[in-house]
Amino acid sequence: MCLFSISCNKQAVGEQQRIVFGAQIGPSQASMGVQTKVPTPVTSLSSFYVSATAGPLDDQVPVWNSDIYSWSDTEGAYVSTHLWPSPDPSYHFLASNLRIYNEPENTFVNADTDTDVLCAYMASPNYLKENTLVFKHVLARLGTITIKPGKVFTDVDPAPYYTVTDVTIKVTPWNKGKYDIEKGDGHNDGTGWLAREKADSPVIIAQTAGPIDSEGTAYSQANDLWLVPETYAILLSWTVAHDAWSRTYEDIPAAVPMYAGEINNVIFVLGGDKSLVFELITTPQEVVTRDLSTNTEYNNIWE
Fold first, then answer.
1. What are the Cα distances from residue 134, in Å, to 45, 157, 227?
2. Do domains 12-137 and 140-302 have the same CATH topology?
3. SS3 state of residue 72
4. Contact 95, 49 (CB under 8 A)
5. Alpha helices in the chain, H assignment, sequence order
6. CA–centroid distance for 1 within its chain
7. Domain residues of the chain, as ranges?
Protein backbone atom coordinates (compact mmCIF):
# COMPACT_ATOMS: atom_id res chain seq x y z
CA MET A 1 0.00 0.00 0.00
CA CYS A 2 1.32 3.39 -0.93
CA LEU A 3 1.66 5.53 2.16
CA PHE A 4 2.97 8.80 0.77
CA SER A 5 1.40 11.10 -1.76
CA ILE A 6 3.22 11.23 -5.08
CA SER A 7 0.92 13.47 -7.12
CA CYS A 8 -1.15 16.54 -6.29
CA ASN A 9 -4.66 15.35 -7.09
CA LYS A 10 -7.58 17.77 -6.84
CA GLN A 11 -10.48 16.15 -5.03
CA ALA A 12 -13.69 17.93 -5.99
CA VAL A 13 -17.09 17.36 -4.38
CA GLY A 14 -19.75 19.28 -6.30
CA GLU A 15 -18.37 22.81 -6.59
CA GLN A 16 -16.37 22.48 -3.39
CA GLN A 17 -12.99 20.88 -3.10
CA ARG A 18 -11.98 18.28 -0.57
CA ILE A 19 -9.16 19.07 1.86
CA VAL A 20 -6.56 16.38 1.21
CA PHE A 21 -2.98 15.83 2.30
CA GLY A 22 0.24 14.25 1.23
CA ALA A 23 2.64 13.25 4.00
CA GLN A 24 6.27 12.54 4.60
CA ILE A 25 8.09 11.48 7.73
CA GLY A 26 11.32 13.08 8.88
CA PRO A 27 14.35 11.11 10.06
CA SER A 28 13.24 7.91 11.79
CA GLN A 29 14.98 6.12 14.59
CA ALA A 30 17.00 3.14 13.44
CA SER A 31 17.39 -0.06 15.46
CA MET A 32 19.91 -0.02 18.30
CA GLY A 33 20.81 -2.20 21.25
CA VAL A 34 17.89 -2.55 23.63
CA GLN A 35 18.41 -1.69 27.29
CA THR A 36 14.89 -0.81 28.38
CA LYS A 37 11.38 -1.19 27.02
CA VAL A 38 11.22 0.84 23.82
CA PRO A 39 8.44 1.62 21.35
CA THR A 40 8.40 0.53 17.74
CA PRO A 41 9.80 3.29 15.48
CA VAL A 42 7.20 4.67 13.09
CA THR A 43 8.37 4.73 9.49
CA SER A 44 5.01 4.99 7.68
CA LEU A 45 1.47 6.17 8.33
CA SER A 46 -1.77 4.70 7.04
CA SER A 47 -3.76 7.37 8.90
CA PHE A 48 -3.27 10.25 11.31
CA TYR A 49 -5.20 12.87 13.27
CA VAL A 50 -5.62 16.42 11.98
CA SER A 51 -6.91 19.57 13.68
CA ALA A 52 -7.65 22.87 11.94
CA THR A 53 -7.67 26.42 13.22
CA ALA A 54 -8.47 29.65 11.41
CA GLY A 55 -7.60 33.31 11.66
CA PRO A 56 -4.40 35.23 12.46
CA LEU A 57 -1.57 33.20 13.98
CA ASP A 58 -1.75 35.24 17.18
CA ASP A 59 -5.53 34.82 17.52
CA GLN A 60 -6.50 31.42 16.17
CA VAL A 61 -9.96 29.91 16.48
CA PRO A 62 -10.49 26.11 16.49
CA VAL A 63 -12.45 24.85 13.48
CA TRP A 64 -12.33 21.07 13.88
CA ASN A 65 -10.28 18.88 16.13
CA SER A 66 -8.52 15.50 15.87
CA ASP A 67 -10.36 14.09 12.86
CA ILE A 68 -8.84 11.04 11.22
CA TYR A 69 -7.29 11.29 7.77
CA SER A 70 -6.70 7.94 6.05
CA TRP A 71 -4.75 6.98 2.94
CA SER A 72 -6.88 6.42 -0.17
CA ASP A 73 -5.35 4.45 -3.04
CA THR A 74 -8.13 5.72 -5.29
CA GLU A 75 -7.52 9.40 -4.57
CA GLY A 76 -3.77 9.13 -4.08
CA ALA A 77 -3.84 11.16 -0.89
CA TYR A 78 -4.90 11.16 2.74
CA VAL A 79 -8.58 12.05 2.86
CA SER A 80 -11.47 12.81 5.19
CA THR A 81 -14.83 14.53 4.66
CA HIS A 82 -13.67 18.12 5.15
CA LEU A 83 -14.10 20.64 2.34
CA TRP A 84 -12.43 23.96 1.66
CA PRO A 85 -14.82 26.83 2.53
CA SER A 86 -15.14 29.88 0.32
CA PRO A 87 -13.62 32.41 0.66
CA ASP A 88 -10.22 31.30 1.97
CA PRO A 89 -10.56 30.91 5.76
CA SER A 90 -6.79 31.07 6.41
CA TYR A 91 -6.62 27.63 7.91
CA HIS A 92 -3.69 26.26 9.91
CA PHE A 93 -3.25 22.49 10.26
CA LEU A 94 -1.87 20.42 13.14
CA ALA A 95 -1.38 16.66 12.80
CA SER A 96 -0.09 13.69 14.77
CA ASN A 97 -0.19 9.92 14.99
CA LEU A 98 -1.72 10.51 18.46
CA ARG A 99 -5.12 12.03 19.24
CA ILE A 100 -4.95 15.83 19.44
CA TYR A 101 -6.48 17.85 22.28
CA ASN A 102 -7.36 21.52 22.39
CA GLU A 103 -7.21 23.96 25.30
CA PRO A 104 -7.52 27.77 25.19
CA GLU A 105 -3.73 28.23 25.06
CA ASN A 106 -2.50 24.89 23.70
CA THR A 107 -3.18 22.31 21.02
CA PHE A 108 -1.34 19.22 22.19
CA VAL A 109 -0.90 15.46 22.32
CA ASN A 110 -0.39 13.40 25.47
CA ALA A 111 3.00 11.87 24.72
CA ASP A 112 5.06 9.28 26.54
CA THR A 113 8.10 7.19 25.77
CA ASP A 114 6.08 4.01 25.15
CA THR A 115 5.12 5.39 21.71
CA ASP A 116 7.14 6.96 18.90
CA VAL A 117 5.33 10.30 18.61
CA LEU A 118 5.17 12.17 15.30
CA CYS A 119 3.73 15.65 14.81
CA ALA A 120 3.36 18.12 11.95
CA TYR A 121 2.36 21.77 11.83
CA MET A 122 1.42 23.79 8.75
CA ALA A 123 0.94 27.49 9.42
CA SER A 124 0.21 28.57 5.84
CA PRO A 125 -1.28 25.84 3.64
CA ASN A 126 -2.03 26.42 -0.02
CA TYR A 127 -5.72 27.12 -0.45
CA LEU A 128 -7.61 24.60 -2.61
CA LYS A 129 -4.43 22.54 -3.09
CA GLU A 130 -3.11 19.26 -1.75
CA ASN A 131 -0.70 20.13 1.05
CA THR A 132 2.11 17.86 2.25
CA LEU A 133 2.43 17.49 6.00
CA VAL A 134 6.00 16.90 7.18
CA PHE A 135 5.92 14.77 10.33
CA LYS A 136 8.83 14.87 12.76
CA HIS A 137 9.74 12.66 15.70
CA VAL A 138 9.34 14.69 18.89
CA LEU A 139 11.12 12.32 21.30
CA ALA A 140 14.87 12.04 21.75
CA ARG A 141 16.92 8.86 21.99
CA LEU A 142 20.04 8.33 24.03
CA GLY A 143 22.35 6.02 22.15
CA THR A 144 25.87 4.77 22.77
CA ILE A 145 27.86 5.87 25.81
CA THR A 146 31.62 5.67 25.27
CA ILE A 147 34.15 6.01 28.09
CA LYS A 148 37.78 6.94 27.52
CA PRO A 149 40.56 7.60 30.06
CA GLY A 150 41.97 11.10 30.27
CA LYS A 151 45.61 12.06 30.10
CA VAL A 152 47.59 12.75 33.26
CA PHE A 153 48.39 16.40 33.89
CA THR A 154 52.15 16.35 33.51
CA ASP A 155 55.00 17.92 31.62
CA VAL A 156 55.95 14.49 30.28
CA ASP A 157 55.48 14.20 26.52
CA PRO A 158 53.63 12.15 25.54
CA ALA A 159 51.53 12.25 28.70
CA PRO A 160 50.42 8.90 30.11
CA TYR A 161 46.76 8.00 30.59
CA TYR A 162 44.96 7.50 33.85
CA THR A 163 43.58 4.07 34.68
CA VAL A 164 39.80 4.26 35.12
CA THR A 165 37.76 1.66 37.03
CA ASP A 166 34.35 1.19 38.68
CA VAL A 167 32.38 3.39 36.29
CA THR A 168 28.63 3.91 36.67
CA ILE A 169 26.74 6.45 34.57
CA LYS A 170 23.04 7.10 35.05
CA VAL A 171 20.24 9.48 34.16
CA THR A 172 16.64 10.00 35.28
CA PRO A 173 14.61 10.65 32.12
CA TRP A 174 11.52 12.74 31.65
CA ASN A 175 9.22 10.13 30.15
CA LYS A 176 5.86 11.80 29.53
CA GLY A 177 4.13 15.14 29.10
CA LYS A 178 1.93 17.30 26.94
CA TYR A 179 3.53 18.32 23.65
CA ASP A 180 2.18 21.53 22.11
CA ILE A 181 2.36 20.93 18.35
CA GLU A 182 2.57 24.57 17.29
CA LYS A 183 4.93 25.78 20.02
CA GLY A 184 7.27 22.84 19.51
CA ASP A 185 7.38 23.15 15.73
CA GLY A 186 10.86 23.91 14.43
CA HIS A 187 12.53 23.04 17.75
CA ASN A 188 14.32 19.91 18.95
CA ASP A 189 15.50 21.05 22.40
CA GLY A 190 12.37 20.46 24.48
CA THR A 191 10.50 23.62 23.49
CA GLY A 192 6.75 23.00 23.49
CA TRP A 193 6.72 20.35 26.22
CA LEU A 194 4.29 21.01 29.08
CA ALA A 195 3.46 19.23 32.37
CA ARG A 196 6.34 16.78 32.05
CA GLU A 197 6.82 13.83 34.38
CA LYS A 198 10.07 12.13 35.39
CA ALA A 199 10.72 8.43 35.75
CA ASP A 200 10.55 7.08 39.29
CA SER A 201 14.19 6.02 39.36
CA PRO A 202 17.41 6.60 37.38
CA VAL A 203 18.47 4.39 34.48
CA ILE A 204 22.03 3.08 34.33
CA ILE A 205 23.28 3.87 30.83
CA ALA A 206 26.87 2.60 31.25
CA GLN A 207 28.61 0.49 33.85
CA THR A 208 31.96 -1.28 33.89
CA ALA A 209 34.45 -2.42 36.51
CA GLY A 210 37.25 -1.69 34.05
CA PRO A 211 40.08 -1.14 33.94
CA ILE A 212 40.12 1.34 31.09
CA ASP A 213 43.76 2.20 30.80
CA SER A 214 44.46 3.57 27.34
CA GLU A 215 42.73 5.37 24.50
CA GLY A 216 42.74 2.15 22.50
CA THR A 217 40.65 0.28 25.05
CA ALA A 218 37.70 2.65 25.36
CA TYR A 219 34.53 1.10 26.77
CA SER A 220 31.20 1.51 24.94
CA GLN A 221 27.67 0.56 25.94
CA ALA A 222 24.76 0.70 23.50
CA ASN A 223 21.45 2.05 24.74
CA ASP A 224 18.08 2.74 23.25
CA LEU A 225 16.61 5.01 25.87
CA TRP A 226 13.71 7.15 24.66
CA LEU A 227 13.14 10.38 26.56
CA VAL A 228 11.61 13.83 26.36
CA PRO A 229 14.21 16.18 24.81
CA GLU A 230 15.91 18.33 27.42
CA THR A 231 19.33 19.10 28.88
CA TYR A 232 19.88 16.31 31.39
CA ALA A 233 22.07 16.05 34.47
CA ILE A 234 23.85 12.79 33.70
CA LEU A 235 25.54 11.51 36.85
CA LEU A 236 28.96 9.84 36.66
CA SER A 237 30.84 7.84 39.28
CA TRP A 238 34.33 6.46 38.71
CA THR A 239 37.69 5.73 40.27
CA VAL A 240 40.85 7.08 38.66
CA ALA A 241 44.44 6.08 39.38
CA HIS A 242 47.97 6.87 38.25
CA ASP A 243 50.99 5.22 39.85
CA ALA A 244 50.29 5.28 43.61
CA TRP A 245 47.66 8.04 43.43
CA SER A 246 43.92 7.32 43.15
CA ARG A 247 40.65 9.08 43.74
CA THR A 248 36.96 8.13 43.60
CA TYR A 249 34.25 10.45 42.30
CA GLU A 250 30.55 9.89 42.97
CA ASP A 251 27.55 11.30 41.08
CA ILE A 252 29.43 14.08 39.29
CA PRO A 253 26.85 15.82 37.06
CA ALA A 254 27.34 16.61 33.39
CA ALA A 255 24.74 18.79 31.66
CA VAL A 256 24.14 16.97 28.38
CA PRO A 257 21.44 18.01 25.89
CA MET A 258 19.26 15.33 24.29
CA TYR A 259 17.78 16.44 20.96
CA ALA A 260 14.45 15.32 19.50
CA GLY A 261 14.54 13.28 16.31
CA GLU A 262 18.16 12.37 16.91
CA ILE A 263 20.23 9.49 18.23
CA ASN A 264 22.33 11.20 20.89
CA ASN A 265 25.68 9.46 21.45
CA VAL A 266 27.98 10.67 24.22
CA ILE A 267 31.73 10.23 24.74
CA PHE A 268 33.00 10.80 28.28
CA VAL A 269 36.70 11.30 28.98
CA LEU A 270 37.34 10.50 32.64
CA GLY A 271 40.45 11.38 34.56
CA GLY A 272 41.67 13.19 37.66
CA ASP A 273 40.61 16.45 39.25
CA LYS A 274 38.84 18.89 36.87
CA SER A 275 39.19 16.52 33.93
CA LEU A 276 35.58 15.45 33.27
CA VAL A 277 35.13 16.11 29.57
CA PHE A 278 32.37 14.98 27.28
CA GLU A 279 31.46 15.21 23.62
CA LEU A 280 27.90 14.91 22.31
CA ILE A 281 27.53 13.55 18.80
CA THR A 282 24.01 13.70 17.37
CA THR A 283 23.13 12.05 14.11
CA PRO A 284 19.95 12.18 12.06
CA GLN A 285 18.13 8.92 12.22
CA GLU A 286 17.59 6.90 9.07
CA VAL A 287 15.84 8.92 6.38
CA VAL A 288 12.78 7.00 5.24
CA THR A 289 11.19 9.41 2.75
CA ARG A 290 12.24 11.86 0.08
CA ASP A 291 13.39 15.48 0.22
CA LEU A 292 15.15 15.42 3.56
CA SER A 293 18.52 16.92 4.40
CA THR A 294 21.04 15.11 6.59
CA ASN A 295 21.25 17.76 9.32
CA THR A 296 24.24 16.11 10.97
CA GLU A 297 25.16 18.03 14.10
CA TYR A 298 28.36 17.77 16.10
CA ASN A 299 28.88 19.46 19.45
CA ASN A 300 31.92 19.68 21.70
CA ILE A 301 30.88 20.53 25.22
CA TRP A 302 33.38 21.05 28.00
CA GLU A 303 32.49 20.97 31.68
1. 12, 53, 22
2. yes
3. strand
4. yes
5. 181-184
6. 27
7. 12-137, 140-302
Please give the sequence-ordered ranges of beta strands (E in DSSP) within 150-229, or none if there are none.
163-171, 174-180, 193-198, 203-208, 219-221, 225-227
CATH 2.60.120 for domain 12-137, yes or no, is no
- What backbone torsions phi and psi does residue 56 show, to the nearest 5 degrees? -60, 150
CATH code reported for the domain at 140-302: 2.60.40
pLDDT on residue 153: 82
Helix (H, G, I), strand (E, B) or coil at 44: coil
274, 252 contact by CB (below 8 A):
no
**What does each of the 303 residues of the chain score in pLDDT, given as a tens digit?**
334 332 334 444 444 699 999 998 875 433 333 233 445 566 678 999 999 999 888 888 999 999 999 999 998 899 999 999 999 999 999 999 999 999 888 999 999 999 999 999 999 999 999 999 999 999 999 999 999 998 888 888 888 889 999 999 999 999 999 999 999 999 999 999 999 999 999 999 999 998 998 766 789 999 999 999 999 999 999 999 999 999 999 999 999 999 999 999 999 999 886 556 788 887 764 322 211 122 222 222 222
- 117 and 98 Cβ atoms separated by less than 8 Å: yes
CB 83 within 8 A of CB 15: no
Could you tell me if 97 and 59 are in contact, meaning their C-beta atoms sit under 8 angstroms apart?
no
Neighbours of 286 (CB within 10 A): 13
C-beta separation of 257 from 170 below 8 A: no
Q: Residues with Cβ < 8 Å from 266, sequence gap 6 or more?
A: 142, 144, 145, 146, 234, 256, 278, 279, 280, 281
